[in-house]
Every structure is written in structure tokens, then in C-alpha cells.
Amino acid sequence: MDYWREKSREMVDHFLMNSKADEKYLLSPLANTVDAFLGRKLTHEELVEEAMGYMFAGSGTTSSTLTYLLYAISRPENMHIQARLRDEVSNISTAATAGTEDDIVAVRKNPYINAVIKEVFRVYPTIISTLPRVLTEPMVIDKYKLPAGTVVGMQNWIHHRDPTVFPDPDKFIPERWLASTEAMDASLTPFSIGKRNCIGQNLAWQELYWAIICIMRAGLETKVGPEMKDNDMQQEDRFNTAPRGKRLMLEVVRVTP
Ligand code: HEM
């Protein structure tokens, strides 16, 4: 905790010393503008707290999602998914845009790559804890009348596995997203919904796209290693989930030059 705080302070100080007010960094709006809720600029200590928050919110979440993505496509029954992913990426990189800034745009538009990421979000949502909200007015849910002030919350683990929306809910089937229904789209909530949903979701998507491009473009094939035990990849809920076995061991071979 002390190390995390100290490094965040160093980064905030570096940012304040080296950036101009009109430069666009993640911290710029916080450092340079009046906070609408507080009616004043943030203090130095509050900026450090915010930097710590970004670091926590933005690192374990994305890395856990990437870990489960690699796990899902490296399971023996899913090798066809990995092969298709490699094909899709290599088709993009042999296209006219290869190696240019437009590359990422082509990847972002690729239905299959998006389908794989969405299926990872669905089956292995990294934030599965209840996200508490306080009712500001009464609400009726089914036969229950909840008064204002009640703490309510949802767990995406539950609705991501609703069999009426996602048939065979425990199975990892990216193809289901190639013809998604309105109910499916509405039920996928890895970043939560409403006013306090994830402000880093576009960055998270972008990082996952880049990771997939790099791994697939390197022509690597990954398989779950023999040392992995059945429950090693069980999601342990530490608010941000992580594999119970604390590691993902993969065998990696190069399959294309
Ligand atoms: C796969 C990656 C990610 C997932 C699954 C994820 C998920 C979430 C969820 C579910 C929430 C809502 C928490 C709540 O309701 O209490 C949230 C909030 C937040 N996320 Fe993310 N996140 C990811 C990546 C990121 C990244 C890359 C950043 C920034 C660098 C980030 C910054 C934040 C912040 C600052 C909040 C709090 C927003 C607020 O309270 O208004 N997240 N995230």
C-alpha cells in the first residue's frame, strides 16, 4: 500500500511538473478543472488518491480478463476458436492496412474478434461482486417493494448465465455473439451500467485488441499446460477476480512463420 501510494505520488508530481494545462492526459481534467461535486479543484492528496484508483481499476481488471481469454482459447476443446482468431488477425495483417494505424480499426470492426472478447467478458467477468447502489426512491422488483435508502446490487455472474438468454450458459461459445439478440446485449454487463459504470472501458477494449493482435500475429499457438489442475482457474473473488491457483501455465509453440 505504501509503495503504491509513493509511486502514485511520484507519477502525479512528474505529471504536474511536465504537462501543460491544455494537454490531454487521464489526469488533466482532474488536475486542471473545478470538480463539479466539490465546487473546487482537487487537492494534491486527492489527486494522488485518484491516481491510485486508476491504477487499481485499470490494471488487475484488464490483466485478469486477458488471462482468462488466453485460458479459454487454450483449452483443448477450444483450439478451433484460437485457430480462427489467428486466421482473422492474419487476414487483417495481410490486407492493405497492415502495419498502419488503420490496423486497429480493422481489428475493432472484426465480428469474430469482438465475439471472442464478449464471450470472455460473459463467462469470466472480472468484477463479479455485488456492486452496491442506494435507492433514492422506492422501487418494486417482482413482488418486493423496496423503500428508498435500500442498498441493492447486481451480480453479473448470475445474469451472464441466464439460460433463457444464453443457452448452454457454461459453455464458451463466441459464435453466439455473431447473431446476438437485444436481450443478450442488455445482459452483458462486465463494466456495470448506469452513471457509475466503468470510465476505462474503451481503454480496456483497446488493450485487449492489441494483446490479441500481438499474440496472433506472432503466429503462436497456446495450450493449457499439463501442470494446471482442474480448479486452478476457478475465479477467486478478491473484488477483482483472479485464478485460485495464482498462475496460468501455457505451452507455447510457433505455428506460422
Ligand atoms: C476488462 C477491464 C475492466 C473491467 C471488467 C472493469 C470493470 C469495472 C466495473 C464493473 C466498474 C463499476 C464498479 C462499481 O460499480 O462500483 C468499474 C468502474 C471503474 N473503472 Fe473499470 N474496468 C476495467 C478496466 C478499467 C480501466 C482500463 C480503467 C482506467 C484506466 C478503469 C477505471 C475505472 C474507474 C475509475 C471506475 C470508477 C468509475 C466511477 O465510480 O464513476 N477500468 N470498472
Automatic annotation (TrEMBL):
Keyword match Transport: no
UniProt keywords, alphabetically: Heme, Iron, Metal-binding, Monooxygenase, Oxidoreductase
Pfam family, one: p450
Superkingdom: Eukaryota
Cofactor: heme
InterPro entries on file: Cyt_P450, Cyt_P450_CS, Cyt_P450_E_grp-I, Cyt_P450_sf, Cytochrome_P450_monoxygenase
Assigned protein family: Belongs to the cytochrome P450 family.
Official protein name in the record: Cytochrome P450
Organism of this sequence: Sporothrix stenoceras
